[in-house]
Design brief:
alpha/beta; Rossmann fold; 2 domains; ten-stranded mixed sheet; two-stranded parallel ribbon; UspA
Length: 266
């Protein structure tokens, strides 16, 4: 299990409490974005001043790592901390490489740093082959008693749901939500046909077919609130990232605004 840390992060608290509940090992990556080096956008920045900023960012990252290690000791969680100081592209690439060595990566999402958050999530999903939990602000403690599974019949949704089986089996209630017009729901996204698979794995599951409404993402957000869900499981980027960029998409919209943590796989 691995987490990535930013200011005002919920990911570390979420990861720590999840690791405690699961008896898992936790790795905290508290990386500092080094400004010095080959970053052309720095222009004529005063290099000594940049070096001072680098040292301060590095000290902050190390402080966060040390605090996380102390919190883990108090919680009885086995924890490894890392505090690399790297240019931003190297931080993202290192995260993806490290994610391959862990069961799960936990990352922050939020509107203030949305583009950077989305790049971290995309890199981890597309280059690690492992699932990601994307945690919005205000969710610093793990809880998944009620879970919504966003089912669209895709390979991505099937993979996400099966990767999430440990959470689904432990949940009190799981609702498969299929969203679309009547033809789409009954021809392309038969949630009722998928439910027996989860039931055979001991999941307390129900099915809810819903009209699309304003958008898939908006309907899913509303249903997650009505169901009092504490997690949404969904396949990420069923369409290409380029198409989502130009036309919008459920993954992109939910990464920008989600009421609960998202369990994502691609």
């Amino acid at each position: 299990m691995e987490t990535e840390r930013e200011e005002a992060s919920s990911a570390i608290g979420y990861g720590l409490t999840l690791a405690k509940a699961a008896g898992a090992h936790l790795t905290v990556q508290s990386a500092s974005w080094r400004l010095s080096g080959d970053d052309a956008w720095l222009g004529d920045f005063y290099h000594e001043g940049v070096a001072v900023i680098d040292r301060r960012l590095d000290a902050l990252a190390r402080s966060i790592a040390a605090r996380s290690a102390g919190d883990a000791v108090q919680a009885g969680v086995v924890c490894t901390t890392e505090a690399p100081s790297l240019p931003y592209p190297d931080i993202v690439n290192r995260l993806a490489a490290q994610a391959r060595l862990h069961d799960l990566t936990i990352l922050d999402i939020g509107p203030r740093t949305y583009d950077l958050d989305r790049e971290m999530v995309e890199k981890a999903l597309f280059h690690s082959g492992r699932p990601v939990i994307a945690v919005p602000p205000g969710h610093a403690a793990f809880s998944a008693r009620r879970i919504v599974v966003a089912w669209d019949g895709s390979a991505q949704a099937a993979r996400a749901t099966n990767d999430a089986l440990p959470f689904l089996r432990a949940a009190e209630a799981v609702e498969i939500v299929s969203i679309g017009d009547e033809a789409e729901i009954h021809v392309e996204v038969p949630g009722a046909e998928f439910a027996p698979h989860l039931a055979r794995h001991g999941v307390n599951v129900s099915v809810n077919d819903l009209p699309k409404g304003e958008s898939v993402a908006a309907t899913l957000r509303a249903q997650a609130s009505l169901f009092r869900a504490e997690m949404v499981v969904m396949g990420a980027y069923r369409h290409s990232r380029l198409r989502e960029w130009f036309l919008g998409g459920a993954t992109r919209s939910l990464l920008a605004q989600s009421p609960v943590p998202l369990f994502l796989a691609h």
